[in-house]
Amino acid sequence: MAAPWASLRLVAPMWNGRIRGIHRLGGAVAPEGNQKKKRTILQFLTNYFYDVEALRDYLLQREMYKVHEKNRSYTWLEKQHGPYGAGAFFILKQGGAVKFRDKEWIRPDKYGHFSQEFWNFCEVPVEAVDASDCDINYEGLDNLLRLKELQSLSLQRCSHVDDWCLSRLYPLADSLQELSLAGCPRVSERGLACLHHLQNLRRLDISDLPAVSNPGLTQILVEEMLPNCEVVGVDWAEGLKSGPEEQPQDTASPVPA
Amino acid sequence: MIRRVLPHGMGRGLLTRRPGTRRGGFSLDWDGKVSEIKKKIKSILPGRSCDLLQDTSHLPPEHSDVVIVGGGVLGLSVAYWLKKLESRRGAIRVLVVERDHTYSQASTGLSVGGICQQFSLPENIQLSLFSASFLRNINEYLAVVDAPPLDLRFNPSGYLLLASEKDAAAMESNVKVQRQEGAKVSLMSPDQLRNKFPWINTEGVALASYGMEDEGWFDPWCLLQGLRRKVQSLGVLFCQGEVTRFVSSSQRMLTTDDKAVVLKRIHEVHVKMDRSLEYQPVECAIVINAAGAWSAQIAALAGIGEGPPGTLQGTKLPVEPRKRYVYVWHCPQGPGLETPLVADTSGAYFRREGLGSNYLGGRSPTEQEEPDPANLEVDHDFFQDKVWPHLALRVPAFETLKVQSAWAGYYDYNTFDQNGVVGPHPLVVNMYFATGFSGHGLQQAPGVGRAVAEMVLKGRFQTIDLSPFLFTRFYLGEKIQENNII
Fold first, then answer.
1. What mean pLDDT is predicted for residues A192-202?
2. Structural domain boundaries in chain B
3. What family does this chain come from, according to its entry (chain A) (predicted)?
């Protein structure tokens, strides 16, 4: 651990051969055996032709651009319909679900269509957001942070939510009571450290975070950091090795004189 | 009879015969000869480097448009932005000359790796803000096809600067400037501090400023390797060697007031190889001085500072290496996971390292206590006498701690005003500086690299205006003092 760090430790998984890999990028860390994948033709040609390399570069940039497009900040909508309407529209467009106060959950169906009636009550604050499996990233959080009275936020399995995004959640500290980060591949213990701003948090789910290096120890440290919060997801004994089996000692018996 | 003639161990069966053995008695190393002939034939074929006489692959090329002296994070950042902002793909040939490819003494690898926006100068704040967004999107900026993405291990825990009574007013005005530039910094009173961080002893603290976003620390080695990899994929050449000489030409010109001025132009850079007298003269158009702690030597080679003192010719580059220690200790009851990088009123700082109750920190010595920068030996007494008492006062849990290890690194310290030098030299017209950042070079490297690339390619600063950082301020005496140096 003493610096200088002499070797580059790359924790994140290898790029998939296919260009769709930008989403797979956030997938679970592949075990060593899977590293030797069959190379695709494009990969093979990249080593020989600059044009193929440029083409793959362009496709990669296009994938990243698509994610950016999805996470635009809806400032015009906010002016028209207020922060709650704009935030709700953003979540629903991404494929998540929204619950306004005293109303039912609004979810898009499998074709991505959702009921437009929430525009009628966009003065009502949004109480809960379920953004599981959405492509929300750092810029997209702009829209989410407008929901000042949000009580429950679920970011399960969001592949673009990372430590930087967690450092941005502090404006919701007054209202947020429930947060779920289960299955986010880019969240590590460093991002969890900046959740200490959320002092009203009552339930935090940090199960199945592949980027956390020591889940048991992280659970203990997060519990210490947020004393009023119930931290769920990791058994603190996970990762502890059981010692060698010992003969049960009878400590109650008196020492023979 | 054939078997008798065959050299021992070479024949593998009755029928293997080596050419020439029919005549018997030959002890030619025919195998070696054949492989040498094959190598020569291969080198003549297209696609291979044709070097029949001697191997010069370790030498830099004979011509290069831009030569960057110094391969640390600043030099690589300039190389990256030069390639990113060039008007046409492959327009600029860039060569990075680095003396030590293990980076054993380079400030980048030995750095604590912090990034913060809590400065007093708007330019510094803008540079740090841009660098934070660069690091956040590093896998878009430095994406290389088929290479794994970079994991910077960024801790977004922020910086906590403490101010005593007499510094409180300055801190408030600094925070106002920071907020104007867009940094998210909050001011805390001693009560709020105690509430948030119960392990702190607020004696002597009047005000604290806490960075909420875009501040923290990361792995500088990862950034360096990422930049190196990307820059190599963009076509920048690397060379391991030392710059020993500049060959330049001078031209005498008259200013508008009819005063004579001698302008110099560097034509060649002599790059000497390690542990040998061999050198390669590299013809170049532009030289970038990003040599960090040794920038003054490179500047002296170009003739900067040779003249009567008090004149522009006689103004030297006031950057010198200053040794700084960093200590790593273990304290089981220390501050928890939410600990920011705390900078005390006395100048001592510390931060958490990892999950296991390890901390690292240090303190900048005063001018009188400056250690000798000749080597990177660590003085452990400095921790005992000058660092630990302040830490133990600020965080009572640190009264029991155990030092695990320590290291030392150089600051490329600008003795004039502790801020960087960026931009061209007024007299040596094709030497550009990107050095002298006195401990915050790493966190400003992306912004500074872009600024120097803009200056080289377009002739002026476009995104962040770093004109207060030009070399001429040393001659004109215009100090731009940065107060928040840790």
1. 92
2. 59-155+216-318+415-485, 159-211, 324-410
3. Belongs to the ATP synthase subunit s family.
Within chain A, strands assigned E span 97-100, 105-106, 126-130, 152-154, 178-180, 203-205, 230-232
For residue range A205-231, what is the model confidence (pLDDT) as tens digits? 998 899 998 888 899 999 999 999 999
Measure the CA angle with vertex B202, ends B185 and B482; round to 5°: 45
Question: Model pTM?
Answer: 0.85
Q: Is residue A22 part of a domain?
A: no
Q: What dihedral angle (degrees, nearest 10) is formed by the CA atoms of B334, B335, B339, B340?
A: -60
Residue in chain A nearest B223 by alpha carbon: A8
Q: Which amino acid is at A93?
A: K
Closest chain A CA to residue B137: A138
Give me the pLDDT at residue A46, please.
84
pLDDT at B341 over 90: yes
Q: Would you call A224 and B156 a contact, using CB atoms and an 8 Å cutoff?
A: no
Q: Does the residue A148 lie in any domain? A: yes
Domain with A101 in it: what CATH number?
Answer: 3.80.10.10
Tell me if A10 and B150 make a contact (CB, 8 A cut-off).
yes
B201 close to A (CB below 8 A): no
Q: State how far Cα B226 lies from the chain centre.
A: 13
Q: Tens of pLDDT along B126-160?
A: 999 999 999 999 998 998 888 899 999 999 999 99
Mutate to test the interface with A, among B112, B134, B139, B145 (most CBs of A within 10 A): B145
Architecture of domain B324-410: 2-Layer Sandwich (3.30)
What count of CB pairs under 8 Å joins A to B? 112
B47 inside 8 A of chain A by CB: no
Q: How many domains does chain A have?
A: 1
Residue of A nearest to B354 (CA): A190
Q: Is the pLDDT of residue B123 over 80?
A: yes
Q: Which fold has domain B59-155+216-318+415-485?
A: FAD/NAD(P)-binding domain (3.50.50)
What per-residue confidence (pLDDT) applies to B18? Answer: 52
- Using DSSP's 3-state secondary structure scheme, residue B3 falls into helix
pLDDT band at A8 (very low <50, low <70, confident <90, very high): very low
Q: Over range B99-124, report the average pLDDT.
A: 93
Judged by CB atoms closer than 8 Å, whether chains meet at A46 and B356 is answered as: no
Give the tokens for residue B73: 């994070």
Query: Has residue B466 got a pLDDT over 60?
Result: yes
- The answer as to whether A55 is a domain residue is no
Q: Quick one: pLDDT at residue B40?
A: 83
With CA atoms as reference, the chain B residue closest to A138 would be: B136
A29 touches chain B (CB under 8 A): no
Per-residue pLDDT at A248 exceeds 80: no
How many Å lie between the alpha carbon of B331 and the closest alpha carbon of chain A?
15
Q: How far apart are CA B243 and CA B273, in angstroms?
A: 9
Nearest neighbour of A225 by CB, restricted to B150, B213, B336? B336
Interchain contact A212–B (C-beta under 8 A):
no
Terminal-residue alpha carbon distance, chain A? 52
What is the residue range of A145's domain? 67-110+125-236
Residue A19 located in a structural domain = no
